[in-house]
Specification:
The protein has five helices and seven strands. The protein has 180 residues and is of the alpha/beta class. It starts with a strand and ends in a 7-residue tail after the last helix.
């Protein structure tokens, strides 16, 4: 099984389990929601800098999702591509990711469905040095134990539009699981 190990733990967020949990709790306590939430939340936009700079905003978004959806089966995480310069979005399609909070499993079935549309390609190597998705994963692990993830790097290309459309259609047809 392919496993992606953390590359920015200890730089963008803590590298030790207890320190990571403590900082997540600090981020969760740092901001409160002042607006009422919609009945359902289908997506969120979070920053991907180090937690010292943007962790409280990321925590606020994940906390809002948690308030509206106690259980989420899978998080599709679209990440900014900094070092990957391919033309197509790329899916990390199998295995798992490791963070200081442990292992999180890839939703391989959803990865296959998205890859089969042609709007994204499978390329685990493209994810090896990108941090934009990694910094979100501990929030998911902490707030949504057992949730799977589907990491997708999205370069700033026109193909991103087709990807968004295809992912939306696939998710809307899946009545068996809650996907955000």
């Amino acid at each position: 099984m392919q496993t992606r190990k953390p590359i920015v733990a200890g730089q963008f967020y803590p590298s030790q389990h207890d320190s990571c949990v403590d900082e997540i709790n600090e981020c969760l306590e740092a901001r409160t929601l002042i607006e009422s939430l919609p009945e359902t939340i289908v997506a969120g936009i979070v920053p991907h800098a180090g937690w010292a700079f943007s962790g409280s905003l990321a925590a606020l978004v994940f906390s809002a999702i948690k308030q509206q959806h106690e259980k989420v089966n899978t998080f599709v995480i679209f990440g900014a591509a900094h070092g990957y310069h391919g033309q197509s979005p790329t899916v990390y399609d199998r295995g798992s990711w490791i963070t200081p909070l442990g292992e999180v499993i890839i939703d391989e079935e959803l990865a296959e469905a998205i890859s089969s549309t042609g709007s994204a390609v499978s390329n685990q190597g493209a994810h090896a040095s990108e941090h934009s998705i990694e910094v979100q994963v501990p929030f998911i692990q902490y707030l949504f134990a057992g949730a799977k993830i589907l990491p997708i790097l999205v370069p700033p290309k026109e193909k991103a539009i087709a990807l968004g459309t295809d992912v939306g259609e696939i998710i809307s047809k899946d009545e068996q699981k809650k996907i955000v």
